[in-house]
Write a structure and sequence with these properties.
This protein is an alpha/beta fold and 253 residues long. It contains eight helices and nine strands.
Amino acid sequence: MEKDDLKWLAYYFGPDCGLLREATFWHAFVSQKIEMIEAIGHVIRYGGDQGIFASRAEGKTTYTTRTLLKHVLQGDIDFSVLLSATALAAGRTLKEITGIMRDNVLLRADYPEVCTPVIELEGKPQRAPSMTASGFRHDDRRKKFDHVSIEFTWSGEQLVFPRVPGSPSAGAVYATRGLDSEVRGLKELGIRPKVVVIDDPDTTDTIGNPKIARKVEDNIDMAIAGLGGQQKDVSRVMLCTLPHIARPFPAMM
C-alpha cells in the first residue's frame, strides 16, 4: 500500500487501527480530501511548492502530518520540518506522533522497527540514546543482527527515528518549530530539510497587523526557502485557513 497514499492512510488510520474515533478516518475520503492528499504527496515525491486552502476543521493538518509520516516511514524523506504558528502548537504535533507510534496496532504490526523502540521507552525518552536491538534486516536477505545500538531521539523539538539496521527510516528526522523561533541553518548531522510544512501561519496578530504579517511572509520567502542549502531547494507545503465571515444579527424591530 505504500505505492498509494490514499489506500495507506485509509488502512493504517481506519476504524481498526486502535486509535480513538476522533483520531481515525472512519468515513470515505471525499473529493476535496483526495485532492489535498494527492497535492501533498506530489510535493513530497517531486518537489516544488504547494498551497492548500480550506476552512477550519477540514483536517488539513491531520492529513498532511500523517502523509508526511508515511513517507518518512517508507524512507522517502530523511529530514522533514513542521512549522506551526507557535512553538507550543508545534510541540503538540510531536506528542501526537508519539501517541500514534505507540497506540496504532496496525503500524505496530507492520513498522515494528520504529514502534517497538518507542513503546520500550515506557515514557522515558532518556532511554533512547542507549537502546539496543536484535532482529533481522529488511534488506540483505534478512541478515541477522544482535544487540546493535539504535541510538535515537524521541523528545524536545524533533524526533530522530531509531537506527535499526536495514530500516528505511533509520536516522530520519521529523522536526517541529514555531514560526516565532529561529529556523535559519536548521540541520542534523550535516543533513538539511527536504520538505517543510508551514501549518496555518496566521494568528490574531498577523491578521490585525500588516507589519507582523510581513515579517512572517519574509520568514517564509527567505529563511525557510533557504533551509535546503545552496545545492537543492527545499520543498514547501503551506496550509492556510480560509477566513470565516460572520453574519451580523438581524436588526431588532
